[in-house]
Amino acid sequence: MTPLSPDTIRRPFARYSHGIEVPAGARLVVTSGQLGVRPDDSVAQDARGQTDQCFANIAAILAEAGMGPADVIRINAFVTDRAHMAGYMAARDAWLAGVPVPPASTLVIVSGFTRPEFKVEVEVTAAKV
């Protein structure tokens, strides 16, 4: 994967790439949005805990395809309040620790999810040659 961050535009606000070029012939995996809900249907009360679970769910999906965090080319994340951004970003950065090319990333503030306790939802696209 090749990061695309032209010098003619502002540097990214955090650890992400403005764009990622995927080589021809790469396999793609696209996840559904993952909520911070555990297999037993329990949910952490804070955004960081929910985001950690989102990424744990995503890791399991990617592993089933023989992929991991280093194969992620795009993250789309949604939080229900600006106050949840710090918890989300800390969890994202921890999950991507050691990944040499940070993926493209978007974070959007939304009015809510299917259950009121959900604060964060994350979906990713991954590619592997």
UniProtKB/TrEMBL annotation:
InterPro entries: RutC-like_sf, YjgF/YER057c/UK114
One of the Pfam families matching this protein, by short name: Ribonuc_L-PSP
Name of this protein: Enamine deaminase RidA
